[in-house]
From TrEMBL:
<dbReference type="GO" id="GO:0045727">
    <property type="term" value="P:positive regulation of translation"/>
</dbReference>
<dbReference type="InterPro" id="IPR000640">
    <property type="entry name" value="EFG_V-like"/>
</dbReference>
<keyword id="KW-0342">GTP-binding</keyword>
<comment type="similarity">
    <text>Belongs to the TRAFAC class translation factor GTPase superfamily. Classic translation factor GTPase family. LepA subfamily.</text>
</comment>
<keyword id="KW-0378">Hydrolase</keyword>
<comment type="similarity">
    <text>Belongs to the GTP-binding elongation factor family. LepA subfamily.</text>
</comment>
<comment type="function">
    <text>Required for accurate and efficient protein synthesis under certain stress conditions. May act as a fidelity factor of the translation reaction, by catalyzing a one-codon backward translocation of tRNAs on improperly translocated ribosomes. Back-translocation proceeds from a post-translocation (POST) complex to a pre-translocation (PRE) complex, thus giving elongation factor G a second chance to translocate the tRNAs correctly. Binds to ribosomes in a GTP-dependent manner.</text>
</comment>
<dbReference type="InterPro" id="IPR027417">
    <property type="entry name" value="P-loop_NTPase"/>
</dbReference>
<keyword id="KW-0251">Elongation factor</keyword>
<dbReference type="Pfam" id="PF06421">
    <property type="entry name" value="LepA_C"/>
</dbReference>
<dbReference type="Pfam" id="PF00679">
    <property type="entry name" value="EFG_C"/>
</dbReference>
<dbReference type="InterPro" id="IPR035654">
    <property type="entry name" value="LepA_IV"/>
</dbReference>
<dbReference type="InterPro" id="IPR009000">
    <property type="entry name" value="Transl_B-barrel_sf"/>
</dbReference>
<dbReference type="Pfam" id="PF00009">
    <property type="entry name" value="GTP_EFTU"/>
</dbReference>
<keyword id="KW-0472">Membrane</keyword>
<dbReference type="Pfam" id="PF14492">
    <property type="entry name" value="EFG_III"/>
</dbReference>
<keyword id="KW-0648">Protein biosynthesis</keyword>
């Protein structure tokens, strides 16, 4: 395809503003799918994505429109996948900015728009859902101009649901988004945008060709990874797979090269010709690192092998999470896993329980701490990275601890502002900016990531009745007054419940945990103290009173079957308990205690 006939664009939208619906409409209008095939949203092809309405893996579709090839790049819609988003955006020259005509501009939209602007994109605003009675397109236009600073005069008014404005959008893409540039005679240079495992094709690699061309039978080299492969398929999605003879400059499509694991295909890598390589790799390659860690343990210890297999399988298709074996006195054998963020953690956890039918206990999520250690008699001074509170070194050797900080943007209607400010303050936030736009406040805070992985998002949503939106990126690590808080049940520390907390918030966190455990752990024949402690110092305490001697006493010895049933029920319950300091702790108690941090 000649360069001037190509347009590459992505769609930026806040969750639920209509990105997937619009994408489906564009595909339908340009003939990719018939009405009958449009039953399900095409671009969201994983169950979890569909249920939550979020896009996790980028997909791309080639559309034919009035003699032009339009490549629609769907980008992941969540902050956890920021790097993948940045690579998808780097593969395009423009973007449709879809804003819900009734909801207006949201914080997450902003972050993506700014990224898009950074990539020099031509942005075409689309005001969607104008069919809604609550639609206020003029107000939204003003917001786009005031908040984002983009001219919105020629914003396209559309309803993806009713099919209004679809041709106008396609025409705007052709007229306003610039054609890509590139040199067909230069050595091959293509960006690896995304990859996934397909049971029939093996690893499928989504690429954007910058210079040169790529075809079947060609020997290619991944410049960052350093590996060489033989291309065995070249094609595109319409969204059905279509094989092509080659992909030239400016084009987006896929290749397969008999690659078995996605871990070998790193997003952002440069693909070049093995025999005639490009002089230098594309800029912007970044190694993605997990930022949130937690332990995953099977509820039933017999499921450990099954968990190992399932995690290994998931990892085949998602190289961005890490895992290694972990043992816990309380929870037995499991895995310490690293994720890009909390949503990523939830996705993996949910897939393990749904697709692999595993009951899991997840320990409290932890961020990565940098711990500076002084020298000891036997070891020199050093810095370590701590992923697991249970591995906290001897406090006497700790010189200082650094924790990761984020820059967060929160967008919230005025009426909830007070409570949100208090939440951020309670979480050690530093306010950077507060501006008002059309009855809503835009807040910028620097926050320790540690305080965010601990239920921040849930609190934000509940305080604002779901109206607040939240977006963040990591900025740096800063020294903090951090300590390991242990939870003791009947005077024994339960490793799975220990966490790293800021000294200033330790007491409140400890008290909360003790109170919850008091309700969650059943009574025993003896009194059970539950304590939160830092080092040897108890900072919070609750006591579970002793139970009356005989549970069956209340049966008055009369009804034998009823008595037996009660005993059986007790036995049944025991199987799902872990004994700790001679206290039986039900699995549910761990799950519930940890869920709330
Ligand atoms: P995404 O999260 O941005 O991909 O949003 P979806 O495309 O999944 O749409 C979210 C919800 O809005 C769905 O229930 C859609 O049916 C609905 N929706 C999308 N476009 C329109 C529209 O133009 N009008 C109305 N009334 N609803 C729409
Ligand atoms: Mg969607």
């Amino acid at each position: 395809t000649p360069l001037d006939r190509i347009r590459n664009f992505s769609i930026i939208a806040h969750i639920d503003h209509g990105k997937s619906t619009l994408a489906d409409r564009l595909i339908q209008r340009t003939g990719g799918l018939s009405e009958r095939e449009m039953t399900a949203q095409v671009l969201d092809n994983m169950d979890i994505e569909k249920e939550r309405g979020i896009t996790i893996k980028a997909q791309t579709v080639r559309l034919d429109y009035k003699g032009h090839v339009l490549n629609l790049m769907d980008t992941p819609g969540h902050v956890d996948f920021a790097y993948e988003v940045s690579r998808s955006l780097a593969a395009c020259e423009g973007a449709l900015l879809v804003v819900d005509a009734a909801q207006g501009v949201e914080a997450q939209t902003l972050a993506n728009v700014y990224q898009s602007i950074e990539h020099d994109h031509e942005i075409v605003p689309v005001i969607n859902k104008i069919d809604l009675p609550a639609a206020e397109p003029d107000k939204v236009k003003a917001e786009i101009e005031d908040i984002i600073g983009l001219p919105a005069d020629d914003a396209v008014l559309a309803s993806a649901k009713s099919g209004i404005g679809i041709d106008e959008i396609l025409d705007a893409i052709v007229a306003r988004i610039p054609a890509p540039k590139g040199d067909v005679n230069a050595p091959l240079k293509a960006m690896l945008v995304d990859s996934w495992y397909d049971p029939y094709l093996g690893v499928v690699i989504l690429i954007r060709v910058i210079d040169g061309s790529i075809k079947k039978g060609q020997q290619i080299k991944f410049m960052q990874e350093g590996s060489v492969h033989l291309v065995d398929r070249v094609g595109c999605f319409r969204p059905k797979i279509e094989q092509l003879a080659d992909l030239g400059p400016g084009e987006i499509g896929f290749i397969t090269a008999q690659i078995k694991e996605v871990a070998q295909t790193r997003v952002g890598d440069t693909i070049t010709d093995a025999k005639r390589p490009a002089a230098e790799a594309l800029p912007g390659f970044k190694e993605v690192q997990p930022v949130v860690f937690c332990g995953l343990f099977p509820v039933d210890a017999n499921d450990f092998e099954k968990l190992r297999e399932s995690i290994s399988k998931l990892r085949l298709n998602d190289a961005s999470f890490s895992f290694e074996m972990e043992t816990s006195a309380a929870l037995g054998f499991g895995f310490r896993c690293g994720f890009l963020g909390l949503l990523h953690l939830e996705i993996i956890q949910e897939r393990l329980s749904r697709e692999y039918d595993l009951d899991l206990i997840t320990t409290a999520p932890s961020v990565v701490y940098r711990i500076h250690l002084t020298h000891s008699k036997t070891e020199p001074a050093t810095t370590i990275e701590l992923h697991n509170p249970a591995d906290m070194p001897d406090p006497n050797r700790i010189e200082s601890i650094e924790e990761p900080w984020i820059d967060a943007t929160i967008y919230v209607p005025d009426e909830y502002l007070g409570s949100i400010l208090k939440l951020c303050q309670d979480r050690r936030g530093i306010q950077k900016d507060l501006t008002y736009v059309g009855g809503r406040a835009q807040l910028r805070y620097e926050l320790p990531l540690n305080e965010v992985v601990f239920d921040f998002y849930d609190r934000l949503k509940s305080i604002s009745r779901g109206y607040a939106s939240f977006d963040y990126h990591q900025i740096e690590t800063r020294e903090g007054d951090l300590v390991k808080m242990s939870i003791l049940v009947n005077n024994e520390a339960v490793d799975a419940l220990s966490m790293i907390v800021h000294r200033g918030t330790a007491e409140a966190r400890g008290r909360g945990m003790c109170e919850r455990l008091k309700d969650l752990i059943p009574r025993h024949l003896f009194k059970i103290p539950i304590q939160a402690a830092i080092g040897g110092k108890v900072i919070a305490r609750e006591t579970i009173a002793a139970m009356r001697k005989d549970v069956t006493a209340k049966c008055y010895g009369g009804d034998a079957t009823r008595k037996r049933k009660l005993l059986d029920k007790q036995k049944e319950g025991k199987k799902r308990m872990r004994e700790y300091g001679s206290v039986q702790i039900p699995q549910e108690a761990f799950i519930a205690a940890l869920r709330m941090g």
